[in-house]
Structure formats: C-alpha cells, structure tokens
Amino acid sequence: MLDKTLTILSNTELAPDTFELVLGGENGVERPGQFLNIAVSGFFLRRPLSVCDWTADAATVIYKIVGQGTAALAGFKKGERLSVLSPLGNGYDLQKCTGLTAVVGGGTGVPPMYGLAKALIAAGKDVCAVLGWNTASEVFYVDKFRALGIPVTVCTADGSLGVRGFVTDGLPEKLDYLCACGPEPMLRALCKAVTAPGQLSFEARMGCGFGACMGCSCETLTGPKRICKDGPVMDKEEILW
Amino acid sequence: MVDLSTSLSGVTLKNPVIPASGTFGYGYEFAELYDINILGSLSFKGTTLEPRYGNPLPRIAETPAGMLNAVGLQNPGLHKVISEELPRLRQVFSGPIVANVSGFSIEEYVRCCASLDKEEQVALLEVNISCPNVHGGGMSFGTDPACAAEVTAAVKAVTSKPVYIKLTPNVTDIVAVARACEDAGADGLALINTLLGMRIDLRTRRPVLQNVTGGLSGPAVFPVALRMVWQVYEAVKIPIIGMGGVSSARDVIEMMLAGASAVEVGAYNLVNPYGCRDIVASLPGELEKMGVGDIKALIGGAHG
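ok -> structure tokens follow
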C-alpha cells in the first residue's frame, strides 16, 4: 500500500452527478477491481473508490455524488492534490476467467468493469460487457467499452436506452464466467440467474480500507472476510446471501 | 536527547505511544508499512472467550471530525488469539503487548485474563468493561461502580500481570467508577472508550448503522477524553492510559499533562496508517520546543 499525494489531471462530469477523476502520480495498482482510498479535506474518513482504468502513473476513478464528501470531491480542480492510499483490495483474478466472460456492471459498478474488460482482452480472453443504469441520462463510458471491440449490451430500467430492464435481461444466452460489480440487489439477482462461476466485487462503508478496523467484515462460506482487504472481489460461490 | 520512555506499573515503554485496541488489528497490517517496534506498546483487538462475528453492516458512519463504529467485538476468540495471532504478532513486534479483553460475564473476563496472563509477551491486561456495541455485556459492566469493582477483583485474583480497567465515558460520574476500580485492586485505568452516538441517513430515513447506535471516536472526542483523564487523575493514585481522539504529538503531550502516563491512538490509525509512526517521530521536536528533557515530567503537569 502506497501513501501518496496525487495530482488531479482532470475531474469531469460525465453524467448528472457522476464524475471521472484522473489522478497523476505513482499508484501501484496491479489488478482490475482494486480501489483507492482518497482523503477529502474537511472529512474524517477517506472515500474508497474503485479504479476504472490505470497506467503506472495515472489512475482513473468514477464516482457519483451521494453525500457531502463526494460533493466536496466534485469541487476539486485540475492541478489540486489529494492524499491517496493505493492500491487497496485484492482485485479480480483473471486466471479464473475461462471461456466467454461476461463483465456486468450496474451504475457506479460500471467503472471497475472497464479496467477489467481491458485486462481480460490483454490476457487474450473472450469478453462481452453488459452495463446497466436506471435511465439514459445516467449512462457513461459506453463508447469507451465499444472501442475495446467487444460486444456491449446496455440496459436501462426505464427502457430509455438499449434493453428495457435490468442487467439480468441483457445477459448473453450462454456465458462461461461472470464478473460483476453493482448494487447488492443486482448482484443477488445475477447470482440467481447465472449458473456459471464468477467473481463479484462489493462495496461497503469502510473505516480504514486496509484491513485494520473490521468495519466492513462480512460472513462468507469460507469464513469472515474483510471487504476492503480480503475483497472487494469475492468468488460468487462463497457469498452468503 | 529527549527521554521518551515511560512506565506503567513497572512495565517500561520506550515511548508513551500505543495504538488503541480495534484500530490496529494484531499489528501485521501495519508491520507491512513500517517497523512497528518503534511503538511503546500496542493494544490488540478486543478478545473474547468465543469467536465473534460482530454486528451486521454497515458498521461505520462518518461524523464531523470523527466516526462511529459498531463493529461489535469481532475477533477470532481466545484460543485462536493465543495459538495463531500472538505468535504472528511476536514476529513483527518484540515490545510489551497490552492484551485487550472483553466479555459478557465475569467468568468470561476471568477465563480470558487467566489464559492471557500466561503469555510471556503480554505485559499488561486491559480489561474492556466499556464496549458500547454489544448487548448484555461490555459497557453494562462499566456503567455501575459496583459491577466494575466486581470484574476488577475477579480478574485480579487470577492474574499476576498489571490489570488496567478500560472505562466508558457514557456515565454520569466516571470518577466514581474509577475509584471503585482502584479500591478493588486495579493497577491502572485506561480511558476513554467511545461515546455512544448515532446518525440517520436522509435518503432512507433510517439509522446509518445496522446496530442503530455506535461508538464515537476521532478528534471530536478529544476534549471530552482530556477532561475525563484530568478528573480521574485528580481522584486516583494509579496510572492512567489516556485515549480518545489523539491525532498528533501535541495531543499526546496534552493527555500527559492532564495525567496520562501513556497514550493510546485509535481512530487516527484508520485515516493515517502511518499516524503512530508520525507521532513518535515528532514527539522529540515538540518536547524540545517546550524545553522538556524527560517526557515523564509531563504526567499530570497541568494540575496545580
């Protein structure tokens, strides 16, 4: 884990209340699905945000304004600096992904699926993406997913764009492996709908983000796990719903 | 050279800085970041007789200048702590260890303390009668002077190591509880545990924490903690480990001036994983500025 002061390269609104933040400087990220824990001045706890895309010296996160901390983060400008702990969490294990892997993201669960899709493609895997939002105005990054050259299905709950319904309505007829990130009801529905094995990433209100406080522990079939340190990615088969 | 060493009931610490229980696990997450042997001691995650999974999520909520937690004493249980966690901790920390013990009955406190008393590296026992996040145990022992005294006496009867009772601030008169523990034979006191609080989510209109209430910690509680250390120091003769919102070397110095012989650092570890290291590193400079050559000279120094 690195403790770095990273420089904001951009902080751009992609959709109403949804921002893409690019942070310049060494980030140490090794695998898709890992996250950064960002200190926002005036707020005691850091904000854990999953990595959407990264190079050795730039990391992109996408966040939605859900409270005062993320609202304050949206006010930061290019050139300002943020204290960041990185990389955190285990990330996705690409080796487990065999056959056709569907990367499925819902809302703020979409961003880590982008880095994952890129990494899977680079590893020579067969990938398709299923991305879900409530409505067309919330949609972001679809062109970037399409530019990866993989099949992309967009779902909106109100049918204003793509398939009407949830990500479960946009799944390919046959898939061999599932990787997903999104709200818990979405992950639960996916696990019901998909018999193939997979990995899911979870979000939680965290204290430290690096395994010290037990603030985000959950019970699994393989024992108690800290979402921040032993996760946020867990095998679909070990989740106790 | 400033002398940072201090002592708790005959246990010498190279400096007064101790990561507080529940914010430092069993040390190894932090040992990956820096050599934790620079610390005076460390208080490990509160241990109960049986393994505990803890409370349902969310367990954490943010507050102005602090946080609420309702972890609920998640820990692997006494047996695993002794057989697995302590041997691992020994590999990364050779200094004296504070064993933090919790329970739901006097018998549980007694059994945990009796077992941990046999562990060589455990230097002193910190008996937590103040956890606000479990039901039917924890804090209920610490809010009544007679119960606090009963736990103290029972634990003292089965241990040879110094026993420090960790007190809750969620009482009308912390001095009464402190005196009761001293009279029952406590070697020292540790204070404060977290202050009971809550938050409500405006979207759901429900409490943020599944447990409804949680313990407030962080800089917000520092003045309350300082005041209680001050009051208890005036009332008892046994040493005090002061804690509550400590986030800097200057806070450590204030705590010691109020009467603490050593100081625990809690929530700050969670937002600055190098927090304790930074505090230890900046203590000598702060003391030199004050013209203090021996940190022990600060203890209780603010009392007339």
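The CA atoms of residues 11 and 21 of chain A lie 4 Å apart.
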